[in-house]
């Protein structure tokens, strides 16, 4: 342990009343160009929860110039949802843009089944120009099978990683769920938090929504009347050169890598 960092190499962050302690712990960390650290966690380990950001300087002390004495609580921010029960949602991933902007990814929505992303300025203030007043929510809403014309349903999805490419676009990796089977999911957002329509996949990976692609289960041995499916998951997605995206995850719990154009 580096004894010059925090207390003998460990930096412990405790929230102040009326906020709860970070019962879910820190889930991701990112480094700024100056070497400061930003961590993301939540005020609860269960959904619904409000994400929390904390900024530490290079010596492991809270940066008092960031938000509220080094911590950005989001439970006190204005609620975007008409029921006033949800704000930015549960935070799972964290990334920092070239200009120091902070982006988070997680899940939320009325049922917790949509991918969410939020944008903050370097000082911890919410970027209201990102998404809908600082929060973007993207759901896999598809037509509902049956005779109900115009009816739709939402396939549950979540996110496990977020990164920013050289053009400032946001790459989010995670899973979608159709029934009890999971599919690897990648979304690409514009700088403003909207789905990028140029990232739409192909026949094999189209989700039906431009800006989101899925790796769908396969059916094999059709000629023998035997149907075998695999489950695919995605844990981290990162941008490559020439607008490609590389991701790692699993197929039927085995190591897997994905590359998207």
Protein described:
With 261 residues, this protein is mainly β. Helices cover 0% and strands 40% of the residues. It contains no helices and 17 strands. It has strands at residues 28-31, 37-42, 51-56, 71-73, 90-96, 102-108, 114-120, 135-138, 140-143, 152-155, 157-164, 170-178, 181-189, 212-215, 232-239, 245-251, 254-260. The strands form five sheets. The protein has a four-stranded antiparallel sheet, with no helix packed on it. It has a four-stranded antiparallel sheet with strand order 5-6-7-8, with no helix packed on it. Strands 11-12-13-14 form a four-stranded antiparallel sheet, with no helix packed on it. The protein starts with 27 loop residues before the first strand and ends with a strand.
Would you list the SSEs in sequence order as H and E?
EEEEEEEEEEEEEEEEE
Q: Which structural class do you get from the secondary structure elements?
A: mainly beta
As a percent range, the share of helical residues equals: under 10%
Question: Main sheet?
Answer: 4 strands, antiparallel
| Overall 3D form | globular
Strand order of the largest sheet: 1-2-3-4
């Amino acid at each position: 342990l580096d004894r010059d960092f925090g207390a003998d190499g460990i930096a412990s962050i405790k929230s102040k009343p009326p906020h709860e302690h970070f019962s879910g712990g820190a889930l991701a960390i990112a480094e700024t160009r100056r070497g400061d650290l930003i961590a993301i966690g939540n005020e609860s380990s269960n959904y619904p929860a409000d994400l929390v950001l904390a900024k530490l300087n290079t010596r492991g002390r809270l940066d008092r110039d960031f938000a509220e004495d080094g911590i950005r609580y989001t439970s006190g921010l204005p609620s975007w949802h008409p029921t006033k029960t949800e704000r930015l949602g549960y935070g799972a991933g964290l990334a920092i843009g070239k200009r120091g902007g902070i982006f988070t990814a997680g899940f939320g929505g009325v049922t917790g089944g949509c991918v969410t992303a939020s944008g903050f300025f370097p000082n911890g203030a919410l970027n209201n120009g990102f998404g809908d007043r600082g929060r973007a929510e993207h759901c896999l809403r598809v037509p509902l099978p049956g005779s109900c014309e115009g009816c739709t349903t939402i396939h549950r999805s979540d996110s496990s990683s977020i990164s920013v490419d050289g053009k400032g676009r946001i790459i989010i990796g995670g899973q979608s769920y159709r029934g009890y089977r999971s599919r690897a999911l990648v979304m690409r957002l514009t700088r403003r938090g909207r789905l990028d329509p140029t990232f739409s996949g192909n026949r094999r990976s189209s989700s039906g929504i431009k800006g989101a692609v899925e790796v769908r289960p396969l059916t094999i041995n059709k000629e023998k009347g035997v149907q075998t499916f695999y489950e695919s998951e995605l844990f981290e997605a990162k941008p490559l050169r020439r607008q490609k995206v590389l991701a790692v995850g699993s197929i039927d719990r085995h190591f897997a890598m994905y590359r998207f154009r």
